[in-house]
Amino acid sequence: MGLLGFISARRVPGYDSIQPRLTLKGDTIGDRMKRRFCLCAVMAVLGAAALVAQTNDDSKPIPRTADGKPDFSGFFNIQYAPNMAMGKEDQVPYTPEGKAAYVNHDAKDDPTANCWLPGVPRIMQSPYPAQFVQTSGYLVILFEYMHTFRSIPLNNRPHPTGMEPAFLGDSTGHWEGDTIVVDTVGLKGPPWTWLDTAGHQHSDELHVIERFRRTPDNIQYEYTVDDPKMYAKPWTIAHVFTPLKLSPTLPELIEYSCSENNKDVQHLVPTKPALGR
Asked: At what angle do helices 29-45 and 47-55 cross, to 10 degrees?
């Protein structure tokens, strides 16, 4: 991407960036960030195995806050999921409109190439770690990706009426036992965001329901896409967020700068053949 687009670290499809060559003690920030991304990618591949391996020990207590609630605080690897279908494209419950939107999309039109925020649920499956901060009234998620955040009230307050659609919409949460349930609406429709890097589309009727459950070793995360224009029934995906292994040579979250007005978008290569050829 162009210099006016991304100033960041890691290069993966849909999350293109340039690597600043700032040297520190013989090592470049770009090199260190590459290693961090490799670790994130490995964690994504091993996520399902980690979920099984780390949740079978019933003898370990769940971390809890002073008021007895499960404690989600900490730094976690977000399990990277560039394609929500996960190899089962034939099982995606498309409507005819949703199927056509996916088949006809072009990868060069990925909204994140414009440095637009990725939306929900896409930001929850990006290949970068995040910090979870929990208080009695809020769950706050601080993302390394695009250096943005979600501040989710846990009092089940109603969504604001007349809200302008937003990239990350409006989220409100509540406790169901030891699980935090988050309801998100008010999300921008096309062309502002996609559901994933693979190009699954959504409409301005998108409604996302998320469930966060703490285990002794990780966070089990599940989200449901409810979009009757694009999908004939709700579509549910599950992930696992594993603790970030901290390094004394890296900060917990690396700075990520992504600015609109990227001048290099015109050079992105389309994935659709030219008409008439």
From this structure: 60
In the chain, the N- to C-terminal Cα span, in Å, equals 28
- Residue 175, helix vs strand vs coil: strand
User: pTM of the prediction?
Assistant: 0.78
Q: Which residue has the tokens 């890296």?
A: 250
Nearest-angstrom CA–CA distance, 120 and 52? 26
Tokens of 23: 């040297």
Q: Model confidence over 113-130: pLDDT tens digits? A: 999 999 999 999 999 999
109 CB-near residues (< 8 Å, 6+ apart):
191
* 94, 32 Cβ separation under 8 angstroms: no
Closest CA to 8 of 261, 269, 267, 259: 259
32-61 residue pLDDT tens: 455 555 555 554 445 545 444 444 456 899
- Which domains does the chain carry? 6-267 (2.40.128.20)
Which residues are within 8 A (CB) of 69 and not within 5 positions of it... i.e. 6 or more apart?
A: 134, 136, 175, 178
Relative to beta strand 179-185, strand 207-214 is antiparallel
Q: Where are the alpha helices (DSSP H) in 46-183?
A: 47-55, 96-103
Are the CB atoms for 16 and 1 separated by under 8 Å? yes
